[in-house]
Design a protein that fits this description.
The complex is a heterodimer of chains A (880) and B (375).
Chain A: E1 2-9, E2 18-21, E3 27-31, H1 38-50, E4 72-79, E5 82-89, E6 95-100, E7 103-107, H2 108-119, H3 135-140, E8 141-142, H4 151-168, H5 177-191, H6 201-247, H7 249-397, H8 401-424, E9 426-431, E10 437-440, E11 443-446, E12 448-453, E13 457-461, E14 465-469, H9 476-497, H10 502-529, H11 534-557, H12 571-620, H13 625-659, H14 662-701, H15 705-766, E15 771-774, E16 780-787, E17 790-794, H16 801-821, E18 827-831, H17 839-852, E19 857-862
Parallel strand pairs in A: 3-19, 8-18, 18-19
Antiparallel strand pairs in A: 1-2, 1-4, 4-5, 5-6, 6-7, 9-12, 10-11, 10-13, 13-14, 15-16, 16-17
Chain B: E1 3-8, H1 22-45, E2 50-53, H2 65-74, E3 82-84, H3 97-104, E4 111-113, E5 120-122, E6 126-131, E7 157-162, E8 164-165, E9 178-179, H4 183-186, E10 191-195, E11 201-204, E12 207-209, E13 225-231, E14 239-244, E15 249-257, H5 260-272, E16 277-287, H6 289-303, E17 308-318, H7 322-328, H8 332-344, H9 350-369
Parallel strand pairs in B: 1-2, 2-3, 3-4, 6-7, 7-10, 8-9, 10-12, 15-16, 16-17
Antiparallel strand pairs in B: 1-13, 5-6, 11-12, 13-14
The chains are: A alpha+beta (880), B alpha/beta (375).
């Protein structure tokens, strides 16, 4: 199919008619910027073929804002050399005319349907055409940006493609193949799992049933075997039981047992006798031993007398020795006593002499001391008297310092007051003729005198009368009163102190102090003389005097000194000699005492020895003793002979016992007794077991085991036959299915071969060395190509967008080749189809397209004129 | 006066036929009781003095109580003496079907099980010398004692034994339980009634196998009978007359398909089978698909008619003809599959290929008969 001319009017972007003419047979490149109307042209072509002219769903074809326009497309093309002209008006004045080979042959729906069958597409029942309906043109006319979406487009075109391929390979297809295949698969999958091929459904159930029955039969067979075994056992038991009943084996054993018991009893009797004989021999042995002892004891008596006599002798000699010792030590003792008495006397003499000289010295000392004390006492007494006098005088003269002070103050105040009074007072001066006197206030005044009058004073002059003087002055009275007061106070104090005036008082105070210090000096002297006081000194003196007199008295009583006193030893020596003599005496006395004790003991020993000797002699002399000796001898003889008899008897028994083995006999008895019991018990048990076995068999027999098993076996037979049938059917179906699939796959491969050939041709331009598989639905499948890491393989859908885009175009070119071979019209439209392709690949794709254009008309719309510059055709602009 | 005995054996009561479908098997199980009822009727009809059963009365020791009772019920029709002998299937063991029957109280007084080898006088008419099996298998001759057995003067001596007469029966018979071939002569027996061999068989004038009264296997010749034995007097040769007792006819047929008429023979044979037939039908050779279909049709139709039918076409090879393929529309790759399956019938998986071929043919048949759904 070749487009020759296209004219559109009132169509979307193109309100004014646009005519494109002079399409080339091969490549046609339309380059224009976006929105220039490239896609509108592609759409106009699609609308002309795919949309029914009567369709009400094509409003989008109208130019904007022209609701009454009639979008019109006129396409002129050639198919197999025959020229066609299709004119289609939509919406407004709907029409469809198809002029074939210059003659108007078809119009309306007929024209549309004719084209559809010619080009390989369908119309929708109603509404706008959708991709499902577009068939082969839908595949070859690539809309903008959909070149990579291949699978759907191929699916929509599949029927048409198959038809094409099928026609070329006609007799290889099967009219009923797929239906049969489906049926076989369904039947097969009823019996086997689709994937693993293991039994399922009826087949699995039949196998299970078969297995269950086999198990049940196995169980029954076991039970039957057990039953048969029991029957055999019962027969065996009965046989044995009857045999035992007949032969009674335990009876013979019982008889043997009796014999063995008798033998054992006899042997045991022997053992007892042996024991008895041995006991008797032992008894006689002991009796002989006793007799011997008795005899030995009797023989001992004589020896005892001799021994006792020897004892007496020894005791006596010992006593003599002891006596001698005592004597010797008594002599020694006496000597020591004398020596000691002498020493003691000497010591006493020495001591007496020493005492007298000591006493003498003491008396002399005391005498001196008494005399000295007498002097001191005298002096002390004198001193004491002086102290007492001084202290008494000091006390008598003493004036209290406070009184003295008061007195001084009062005297001064009095003087002051008197002075003041004098100055203010009336002074009376008297110058009286000798021998004459007056009295003032009763007081006689003669000579010259002066008087100060402070109060009314009467001066009586004898003979004259009286003169009353009354002193003036304001204070005169108070001063006078004060002076009088003070005078009275002073006078009172003076009176109390018994002094005339202040000077006297002061003198007394000075004297008192003097006396006190003198007394103090004397007391110091006294203290050195009699530190504890005079009285103490006196007592001391009296005592010393007393002692002296006592000493003198004692001395007087002492014996007078002898002349020999000068020969006496010193006290030390005398004491040492006395001590030595005493020690010697004590030692000797001790020894003597010991010797005396030894003597006493020796005497006692001797007495005992004598008694013992006496007793021994009495025993020996006992008249019954001889009788006892005889008796003992007889008894010994008797015992010895009887022991010998008993021993002989025991030996004889032992000899006999050696010939019989008691323990073996005992074992025999036990063994036979056990055997008898066992036999009887076994017999009883067997009887019981027979009963058990019989009842058990009765119960099990009633179960009808073998009949049941036969029944089960019949069922198993049926089940096995069914399982076998199903197994064979499954195997046959499986096999059949596999064969059908294999054959069908082989056929499909043969069908796909031409497509494969064309694909490989383009693929080798794009990816040298690559291979692609064609799937059953004729879409490209896995692609294998050399990659940087060896051969890579992957599904078409897993490729990159760019690669899919390229592969999409390559595949479409291959379909186009295929269709062309089958004599179908082909036209390729690529609307911006390689936008995701890089420069290298684009270069390859250009080679691919150039190659394809040798066989097909190819329309390429692009907005990248520069990229397509080397395609080998001149790009056309739409405006032209 | 002539002594008349009815001699039977191998009743095998309680036998289950596992090779058949359940309903068929049940009918064959029943048939054995019915055979006993017919024996009772024959005994009455021929006014026999006693019925002798020479072993294997029961098929197994542990049949159900119900089966035991039903057997003795089936014998009620004849009130004369029934002399029963234990065989290898129902040996008189320490515990056996006999002791159980006895415990159940199911044995009527006119039935005499001979559990011990000792002479018994039956109705003052004859002395029977039974040789019961007391073990499952015996390798000695249990009839040895017959020669020295003393029987009442003037009464016929009738031996009753179960086992294989030496040197007479085919070799494949079990060699256990042997019986000397000349026993009747050496033991001065008037008649020796034998069991174990399921067909009626004469050993000598006085020695016979009665066979089972109801056939139970395909290979039993002259089974389904009982023997009416008449002894006219001392030293007279017994007169033995087989009486028909069986109901089901066990038939085995092998047909090899080679030429087209073989198929017709096979179909005729199948068409001839009737209700009481128990059939084992084997075909081998070669058939085309249409022949196979006709054969299968014949088999299915016969199966609905007969008592039981076992069909075996394992050795039949299918050879689809061009006509078959045409008729089945087996074109395209289906045709290739068909061809391959035909070839595979000569290979190791011949059976699978044949099965697959049959399935394929049937499915194609079905598809062809359905309205075309071709798009």
């Amino acid at each position: 199919m070749k487009l020759r001319r296209l004219r559109i009017e009132h169509f979307k972007r193109f309100r004014d008619p646009l005519t494109i003419e002079g399409f080339a047979d091969g490549l046609n490149l339309f380059a224009a910027p976006n929105e220039a109307g490239k896609s509108t042209i592609a759409e106009a072509i699609r609308a002309a073929f795919f949309e029914r002219h009567r369709s009400g769903s094509v409003d989008h074809l109208r130019p904007w804002g022209e609701p009454s326009a009639t979008p019109t497309v006129e396409v002129e093309f050639e198919i197999a050399g025959t020229p066609y002209r299709l004119t289609k008006g939509f919406l407004g004045r709907k029409r469809c005319d198809l002029v074939i080979d210059g003659r108007q042959t078809l119009d309306g729906v007929a024209a549309e349907d004719h084209l559809a069958s010619l080009l390989g597409f369908r119309f929708p029942g109603k509404g706008a055409s959708t991709p499902e309906h577009m068939g082969i043109p839908g595949l070859l006319w690539i809309r903008q940006g959909t070149s990579h979406e291949l699978a759907d487009a191929v699916a929509h075109a599949a029927d048409h493609l198959r038809q094409v391929l099928g026609e070329s390979l006609g007799d290889l297809t099967s009219s009923t193949g797929d239906a049969l295949l489906h049926q076989v698969e369904t039947a097969r999958n009823e019996l086997l799992t689709p994937v693993g091929g293991s039994p399922r459904g009826d087949y699995a159930a039949a196998l299970k049933h078969q297995e269950e029955l086999a198990d049940a039969i196995q169980t029954l067979t076991r039970d039957i075997d057990a039953y048969r075994h029991s029957v055999d056992r019962l027969a065996g038991l009965r046989l044995e039981h009857e045999r035992d009943e007949r032969t009674r084996p335990w009876a013979a054993i019982r008889q043997d047992l009796q014999h063995a018991q008798e033998r054992l009893d006899r042997a045991r009797g022997l053992e007892a006798s042996l024991q008895e004989s041995q006991t008797e021999a032992e008894r006689w042995r002991l009796q002989a031993s006793a007799a011997r002892t008795h005899l030995d004891a009797l023989a001992h008596d004589e020896e005892a007398v001799a021994k006792r006599a020897q004892g007496v002798e020894a005791a006596e000699s010992a006593m003599t020795v002891a006596q001698a010792e005592v004597d010797r030590w008594e002599q020694q003792h006496r000597h020591a006593v004398d020596t000691e008495a002498q020493a003691r006397r000497t010591l006493e003499q020495v001591r007496a002499v020493a005492a007298r000289s000591a006493q003498l010295r003491s008396a002399e000392d005391l005498d001196a001391s008494v005399r000295k004390q007498g002097d001191a006492l005298e002096k002390a007494r004198a001193e004491k008297t002086r102290v007492d006098q001084l202290e008494a005088e000091a006390a008598r003269l003493a004036i209290a310092p406070a009184d003295l002070k008061t007195l001084k103050q009062l005297s001064e105040q009095l003087r002051d007051v008197s002075v003041r009074l004098e100055t203010v007072a009336t002074s009376l001066t008297f110058d009286l003729v000798d021998g004459k006197s007056v009295r003032a206030d009763g007081e006689s005044v003669s000579g010259q005198a002066r008087r100060t009058v402070v109060r009314r004073t009467e001066i009586e002059i004898d003979g004259v009368g009286r003169i009353l003087v009354t002193p003036g002055g304001a204070d005169l009275d108070s001063l006078a009163a004060r002076r009088d007061g003070l005078s009275a106070e002073v006078a009172a104090i003076l009176e109390r102190l018994a002094v005339a005036n202040l000077a006297e008082a002061e003198e007394r105070a000075r004297l008192s102090t003097q006396r006190s210090s003198e007394a103090q000096a004397s007391r110091k002297v006294l203290d050195t003389l009699a530190p504890d006081g005079v009285e103490a000194l006196a007592t001391e003196h009296a005592q010393a005097s007393q002692r002296l007199s006592a000493t003198r008295t004692a001395l007087a009583q002492l014996p007078p000194a002898a002349d020999s006193d000068g020969d006496l030893p010193t006290l030390d020596r005398a004491e040492a000699a006395a001590a030595e003599a005493r020690s010697t005496l004590e030692s000797v006395a001790q020894t003597l005492s010991t010797a005396r004790v030894a003597l006493g003991r020796a005497q006692s020993d001797r007495a005992n020895a004598l008694q013992e000797l006496d007793a021994a002699r009495r025993t020996l002399d006992d008249p019954k003793r001889a009788e006892r000796v005889d008796t003992a001898r007889t008894s010994l003889q008797d015992a010895i002979s009887k022991e010998a008899i008993a021993r002989q008897s025991a030996e004889a028994i032992q000899v006999e016992l050696q010939t019989v083995n008691v323990s073996l006999l005992q074992q025999d008895v036990r063994r036979l007794a056990d055997s008898a019991v066992q036999q009887e018990e076994a017999h009883r048990q067997r009887a019981g077991e027979i009963l058990r076995c019989e009842s058990e068999l009765a119960v099990h027999g009633a179960l009808g085991l073998e009949e049941k098993r036969a029944e089960q076996e019949r069922e198993l037979g049926a089940a096995s036959r069914r399982a076998e049938e199903l197994s064979r059917r499954a195997a046959a179906l499986d096999h059949l299915l596999r064969l059908l699939q294999e054959k069908r796959a082989a056929l499909a491969r043969r069908l796909r071969a031409p497509l494969q050939r064309h694909l490989d041709r383009y693929l080798n331009i794009l990816f040298p060395g690559a291979r692609i598989e064609v799937a059953d639905d004729l879409s490209p499948g896995a692609i294998t190509r050399p990659g940087p890491r060896g051969t890579e393989s992957g599904e078409f859908e897993a490729l990159s967008l760019g690669t899919r885009e390229q592969m999409g175009i390559v595949a479409r070119l291959a379909y186009a080749d295929l269709l062309q071979e089958a004599g179908k019209p082909t036209l390729l439209i690529l609307d911006d189809a390689l936008v995701n392709t890089d420069e290298d690949r684009l270069g390859q794709m250009k080679r691919v397209l150039y190659d394809a254009a040798a066989r097909h008309q190819v329309m390429i719309f692009t907005c990248h004129p520069a990229a397509w510059r080397d395609l080998g055709v001149v790009a056309r602009s739409l405006s032209g | 006066m002539t002594l008349r005995l009815l001699h039977s054996a191998d009743w095998q009561i309680g036998r289950v036929f596992s090779q058949f479908e359940p309903d068929d098997a049940a009918a064959l199980f029943e048939a054995r009781f019915q055979a006993v009822e017919r024996l009772a009727a024959l005994a009455v009809e021929h006014r026999v003095d006693a019925v002798l059963i020479a072993g294997d009365v029961f098929d197994a020791q542990t049949v159900s109580d119900k089966t035991i009772r039903r057997l003795f019920n089936a014998m009620q029709g004849y009130v004369g003496p029934w002399v029963l002998l234990p065989g290898n299937h129902d040996a008189a063991l320490a515990e056996s079907v006999w002791t159980r029957a006895h415990r159940l109280g199911a044995i009527p007084s006119n039935v005499l099980p001979c559990l011990r080898p000792e002479v018994r006088v039956v109705g003052d008419r004859f002395a029977v010398l039974p040789a019961p099996l007391v073990q499952r298998h015996t390798y000695g001759d249990l009839t040895d004692w017959y020669a020295n057995a003393v029987t009442p003067e003037g009464l016929p001596r009738i031996g009753l034994a179960h086992g294989a007469v030496q040197g007479v029966l085919p070799d494949d018979i079990d060699s256990a339980n042997p019986i000397a071939a000349d026993r009747a002569v050496t033991a001065r027996l008037d008649y020796l009634a034998l069991g174990d061999w399921h067909g009626s068989k004469r050993i000598d004038d006085r020695t016979w196998y009665a066979g089972t009264p109801e056939t139970d296997r395909f290979k039993a010749n002259d089974s389904g009978q009982a023997l009416l034995v008449s002894l006219a007097g001392a030293d007279a040769t017994p007169e033995v007359q087989p009486l028909h007792t069986g109901r089901y006819r066990w038939q085995q047929r092998d047909i090899r398909l080679a030429v087209p008429t073989d198929l017709d023979t096979a179909l005729d044979t199948l068409a001839a089978y009737a209700g009481d037939d128990v059939v084992q039908f084997r075909v081998s050779g070669t058939s085309d698909l249409s022949g196979q279909r006709r054969l299968q049709h014949g088999v299915d139709s016969a199966r609905a008619r007969v008592r039981a039918l076992v069909y075996d076409a394992q050795d039949l090879r299918l050879e689809p003809t061009e006509e078959d393929i045409e008729a089945l529309h087996a074109d395209g790759y289906v045709g290739e599959v068909l061809q391959q399956l035909r070839d595979e019938q000569s290979g190791p998986e011949a059976e699978r290929a044949r099965d697959a071929l049959v399935i394929l043919a049937r499915m194609l048949d079905d598809l062809a008969e359905r309205p075309s759904v071709k798009t």
